[in-house]
Amino acid sequence: MSEQPPTQEFDVWPGDTYEHCMGGTYRVIDFGQDATGYEETGAVTRTVVYEQLSNGKAYPAGTVWTRSLHEFINGTTEIDGELVPIFKKVV
User: Fold this and answer.
1) What is the pTM of this model?
2) What pLDDT shows up at residue 9?
3) CATH number of the domain enclosing 65
């Protein structure tokens, strides 16, 4: 695991638990970098690696996912005409 995740400023840490807006609970495992486009831009995209803790409609508990850090923190979706965060931290 990352000793100092690149996300301290966003208060996201390995072991944190989040609820998805459509249901399901997920735990942050670690952080990564997506090098797609690195050759053109010289930059990588920070990613969050997280694990599904509950069985879903299509994927079982234990499934590992990745999402850009930006989308994980700032991503929203529309539900019943209202914009809601995709992930909400479980405190």
Assistant:
1) 0.82
2) 57
3) 2.30.30.320
